[in-house]
User: What shape does this take?
Amino acid sequence: MKRDSKKVDPRYKIANREALIGLGLVIVNFIWWFSFAYGMGSKPVDEYSYIFGFPAWFFYSCIVGTVIMTILVIVVVKFWFVEVDLGDEEGDKE
Assistant: This one.
C-alpha cells in the first residue's frame, strides 16, 4: 500500500477545529433551550409565571437564549477563529 506523500493543507486543520467549535456552540444552544423549555414549560399552564407577557420558559429559552448565544458566537468568532486565505496556492503565485 502506497502512502500519500502530499502534505495536508493546514487550512483543513483550521477548518476542522472551527467546525468542532461551531458544533460545540450548537450543543450548548440546544442544552440551554431544552433545559428552560422543558424544565420550566412542563408545568400546568395555571402555574406559569410571565415575564414581559411571555411565559417564563419561553422568555428564558427563546429570547434570553438567543441574546446569549449571539453574544457567545461573536466572542468565539472574534477570539478563537482565524482568517484563512481561501485562494488557490497556484493562483496566488501569478
Remarks:
- The radius of gyration is 22 Å.
- The chain has a mean pLDDT of 88.
